[in-house]
Design brief:
eight-stranded antiparallel β-barrel; alpha+beta; 11 strands; about 300 residues
C-alpha cells in the first residue's frame, strides 16, 4: 500500500508539471535557448520527471539482468518496451572518439496543448492524455558520437530505432497521432563529465507521421519530390469546380517535417558498466495528416538509458 501511495503521489506531481508556468528563472542551466513551449513548461516538467524517476517501478531491471533473460522470459511481459535502470552515482568522463550507444528513451506520460476557454477567455494549456498505442512506443538502440566543445559534451544522434508512431487520447476522446522521435538530435551538455545532475538538450527533426508509402504503396515515386501528390485510388477534383478549393489541402498531400526539442538530466551513473540513466522531457509537433491539419504540440516525459563506448 505504501509503494502504491508513493507511486500515486509521484505521478500526480509529475502530471501537474505539465501545467504552463514561467520557470525561466528556476532553471539551473539554460541549454541552447529552449523553444517557447519548452521555456514555459520544460524545467517544471523535468523536475516532475525527476520525481517520477526517483520512484523506481516494482519490476525495475538493470541491463545486465535483462541480458540474462531468454526470449520466452521476455515475451508478453512488456520488458521489451522498457528502458533498463542504472544503479550508482559515479562519474564518467568520455574520452576522445567515445560514442553513446544502446540508448533507450521510454515515455512515461504525455500531454497535448489545447485551447481552454474559461470566463470568456481562451488560453493554451497542456492537457494530460493517455497512450493508446500498444507497447511499441519506446525508442531503442540509438547511438551517436560524443565530442567536447568548449569543455562541454555534445551528443550527435546518428542511427537506431529513433522513431515510433504513437497515438494519445485526450480526456474528451479526441485521439492525437504523432511520430515520437529524436532524429538528428544534437544535444549540448553543461559539463565535460556524465554525473548526477548533468544536463544536456537540443533540437531534433520530426518527420511526417505518414511517409510517402501512404500514397505510394508500391514505392514508385516520392511524395513532394518526383512521385504522387494524392491517393491514386481517390483522385481529387482539381478542376476548379465548386468546392475544390475547400478540399485542396485534403487532396494535395505534402511531406511536412517539423522540429522538436528534448531536455535530459542524468541522475544515475555506473562507471563499472559505463552506463548512465536519467529523465527527459520533450516537446514536438503532432501529425498534420500530410499538410491538411494544423499540428498540435505534444509534451512527452519519461526516462532514458545509455552506455558510453
Amino acid at each position: 500500500m505504501k509503494l502504491a501511495a508513493a507511486c500515486t503521489v509521484a505521478f500526480a506531481a509529475s502530471a501537474n508539471a505539465f501545467a504552463p508556468a514561467n520557470v525561466a528563472g528556476s532553471r539551473s542551466t539554460q541549454l541552447n535557448a529552449a523553444k517557447d513551449d519548452m521555456a514555459r513548461v520544460g524545467a517544471a516538467a523535468l523536475a516532475g520527471a525527476a520525481l517520477f524517476g526517483a520512484t523506481l517501478p516494482a519490476q525495475a531491471i538493470t541491463k545486465s539482468e535483462l541480458n540474462q533473460l531468454s526470449y520466452l522470459q521476455v515475451k508478453g511481459t512488456g520488458l521489451a518496451n522498457r528502458c533498463s535502470e542504472v544503479v550508482g552515482e559515479d562519474t564518467i568522463t568520455p574520452k576522445s572518439g567515445s560514442r553513446l550507444v544502446e540508448m533507450c528513451i521510454e515515455p512515461k506520460a504525455w500531454a497535448v496543448e489545447e485551447e481552454i476557454g474559461k470566463a470568456g477567455k481562451t488560453e493554451k494549456k497542456f492537457v494530460n492524455s493517455k497512450v493508446m498505442t500498444r507497447q511499441t512506443y519506446t525508442l531503442e538502440g540509438i547511438e551517436g558520437s560524443i565530442k567536447t566543445d568548449g569543455g562541454n559534451i555534445v551528443f550527435n544522434e546518428e542511427e537506431g530505432i529513433d522513431y515510433a508512431p504513437t497515438t494519445v487520447q485526450l480526456p474528451g476522446g479526441e485521439r492525437v497521432p504523432f511520430l515520437f522521435t529524436v532524429k538528428e538530435l544534437v544535444a549540448k551538455g553543461n559539463g565535460g563529465s556524465f554525473k548526477p545532475g548533468f544536463q544536456m538538450g537540443g533540437d531534433f527533426s520530426v518527420p511526417s507521421y505518414r511517409t510517402g508509402l501512404f500514397l505510394d504503396p508500391k514505392g514508385l515515386g516520392r511524395v513532394g519530390v518526383t512521385g504522387y501528390d494524392m491517393a491514386v485510388a481517390l483522385p481529387g477534383l482539381q478542376s476548379d469546380e465548386e468546392g475544390d478549393a475547400d478540399l485542396f489541402k485534403e487532396n494535395n498531400k505534402t511531406f511536412d517535417a517539423g522540429q522538436g526539442r528534448i531536455e535530459m538530466e542524468v541522475n544515475k551513473v555506473n562507471a563499472d558498466e559505463s552506463e548512465i540513466g536519467g529523465v527527459f522531457v520533450a516537446s514536438q509537433p503532432g501529425d498534420t495528416d500530410m499538410g491538411s491539419k494544423v499540428p498540435k504540440k505534444i509534451l512527452t516525459k519519461g526516462i532514458f538509458y545509455a552506455k558510453i563506448q
